[in-house]
Specification:
By secondary structure, the protein is an alpha/beta fold. It contains twelve helices and ten strands. The strands form two sheets. Strands 3-2-1-4-8-6-9 form a seven-stranded mixed β-sheet, sandwiched between helices. Helix 2 links the parallel strand 1 and strand 2. It is elongated, with a radius of gyration of 25 Å.
Length: 401
């Protein structure tokens, strides 16, 4: 009887450790369902028929990118849309950009070109270029994009502008990185995809946390009403992030997730660009006023991966220590087998949910590298935060001439 009592006293902490891990496991399983929400939205929009498109102006900026313009601009100009125009803002190019644009205007009357003023000091070049594009546009809605982007199909503008309905002030679209190469390319593609999964899902339910100027529709009258990019003007980057975060609500923001409405953008494959982007976003993040809800969700998504892994290892270690590394009884073997089985089920379930969402978005699978990439998110954020803490803040407010 004494031996039986000792057995139960020894086994009870093992059961407690397994139950604790099971609670963490259940939370992580429920979190993985969030990936499927975005997939369901993509599939739902794919099955819907596009509505009546709104008049829209496409705004893109360029600087010494004539070769890219030759490749990408015709795809925008040949969109199937009853009423649109393309506004190209030239940022003092020194190559054949202006000559090429002049030639294209002869064939495409809905192409408009504007240039930087001779003197443009003390203002972010990004903000000035986009503001000039909005002023030159003649349509009520504008689409901010980039010369390095190309539409997924000839119906991209139609699908995006069909979401520009009454009561909406901004429409967020999805952008895919194309042709990633090497480790840096993989990081870029995963991190942007993962962040867009979180942001677009959050925007469809609450408000948009951020939006890059690659696939964003905005109402011109709303832009002027809130003085455009006036807030945070000294910053180099993050113009659209700050503007969207400040004025987005659940009622005035829509999300377009039809696969034909996506933009494809050339993937940066240089490590220094990765470090630059992460560092500058840390400064932009300080100026995003509506952040609490999204940041909590973001922290949960990034930290849960580590919490799950560490709790699994801690459970195994606790069970082994409590049983003095002797797993002779069925109970002690079960106490080790249960966490291992739960961990394997979670790994398969998370990978499956993520893979199906990637497939719906047209992205390539990341099955083998997914566990490593998810664990590295917290490390990337911490590294960028530490670098930002030790960087002279005047760097982020550099003046442009």
């Amino acid at each position: 009887m004494q031996q039986l009592t000792d057995f139960h006293i020894q086994l009870t902490p093992s059961l407690i450790a397994c139950l604790t891990y099971a609670c963490v496991w259940l939370i992580c399983m429920l979190r993985s369902i969030g990936y499927r929400r975005l997939r369901n939205k993509v599939q739902a929009e794919s099955a819907q028929q596009a509505g009546q498109p709104a008049s829209i102006s496409v705004i893109l900026t360029t600087q010494d990118q004539c070769s890219l313009l030759r490749e990408r601009l015709p795809l925008l100009l040949q969109q199937q849309h009853p009423d649109f125009e393309v506004v190209v803002v030239d940022m003092k190019s020194q190559d054949d950009t202006l000559q090429y644009l002049s030639d294209m205007q002869l064939s495409y009357p809905h192409l408009r070109v504007c240039s930087f003023p001779p003197q443009s000091k003390d203002i972010s070049a990004e903000r000035l270029a986009l503001t000039l594009g909005v002023r030159a546009a003649s349509k009520e809605w504008v689409l901010f994009t980039n010369v390095s982007c190309q539409p997924a199909s000839r119906k991209t503008l139609w699908l995006l502008s069909s979401r520009c309905t009454e009561g909406k002030q901004m429409v967020l679209g999805y952008t895919r990185y194309a042709n990633p190469k090497g480790w840096t390319g993989l990081r870029y593609r995963f991190f942007r995809t993962w962040q867009q999964m979180l942001n677009l899902t959050h925007a469809s339910r609450y408000h948009a946390y951020r939006a890059s100027a690659t696939n964003l529709c905005y109402r011109r009258s709303f832009f002027y009403e809130h003085k455009g990019f006036a807030d945070g003007t000294p910053l180099q980057n993050g113009a659209t992030d700050i503007m969207v975060n400040r004025y987005s609500t659940a009622q005035n923001t829509a999300v377009c997730l039809h696969p034909d409405s996506f933009m494809f953008q050339d993937c940066p494959n240089e490590a220094h660009l990765w470090n630059h982007d992460r560092l500058f976003f840390m400064e932009t993040r300080r100026h995003l006023p509506h952040h609490i809800g999204y940041r909590l969700r973001y922290a949960g998504a990034s930290l849960l991966t580590w919490i799950h892994s560490l709790s699994f290892l801690a459970t195994l270690a606790a069970v082994l220590l409590l049983n003095h590394f002797q797993l002779r009884s069925l109970s002690s073997q079960s106490a080790v087998a249960i966490p291992c089985v739960l961990w394997l089920v979670h790994a398969c379930w998370r990978t499956r949910c993520f893979h199906l969402t990637l497939r719906a978005l047209g992205e390539e699978s990341m099955n083998l590298s997914l566990p490593l990439l998810l664990h590295l998110v917290a490390k990337w954020d911490l590294t960028a935060w530490l670098r930002h803490r030790h960087t002279n803040k005047n760097l982020f407010r550099k003046k442009f001439v």
